[in-house]
Amino acid sequence: QVQLVESGGGLVQAGGSLRLSCAASGSIFNIGSMAWYRQAPGKQRELVAGITSGGRTTYADSVKGRFTISRDNARKVHLQMNSLKPEDTDVYYCKASGNGYIYWGQGTQVTVSS
Questions:
Q1: With contact defined as beta carbons under 8 Å apart, do 12 and 112 qualify?
Q2: Which of 62, 78, 96, 114 has the fewest Cβ atoms within 10 angstroms?
Q3: Are 60 and 46 in contact (CB under 8 A)?
């Protein structure tokens, strides 16, 4: 089992920045890729950014050039969010996957005021 704990969410004005972090514990040898997703009420969860164990990254078009995903090691992943917009308001979830397993964090709220 892997436990994921997100931190760093909050309220920020449009144009501001936030840094989300996700720390993994437990059977981290199962973790290959890590990613950040977000979900608004009544909508599907969508990929924001992902990073493989080798450091390859992918981003949603809506966040390219504004968000940066990084990874310290197998245990911790970050999402630096700059130039935030009101439409970035969502609950952000950390996801870890590998060896056929998928794990999710509990989510952290990001609210961007206009």
A1: yes
A2: 114
A3: yes
User: What is the distance between the alpha carbons of residues 24 and 21, in angstroms, rounded to a whole number?
Assistant: 10
| 104 DSSP 8-state letter | E
pLDDT at res. 92: 98
Residue 99: CA count within 13 A, CB half-sphere? 8
* Closest listed residue to residue 96, CA positions, set 39, 42, 26, 14: 26
Which residue type does 93 have?
Answer: Y
For residue 52, give every residue at least 6 positions away whose Cβ sits within 8 Å of its Cβ, in sequence order, or none: 32, 33
Q: Which of 114, 12, 27, 37 is nearest to 74 (CA)?
A: 27
Instruction: Count the alpha carbons within 13 Å of 45 in the hemisphere toward its beta carbon.
Output: 12
* 78 neighbors 20 (Cβ within 8 angstroms): yes
Residue pair 67/81 in contact (Cβ under 8 Å)? The answer is: yes
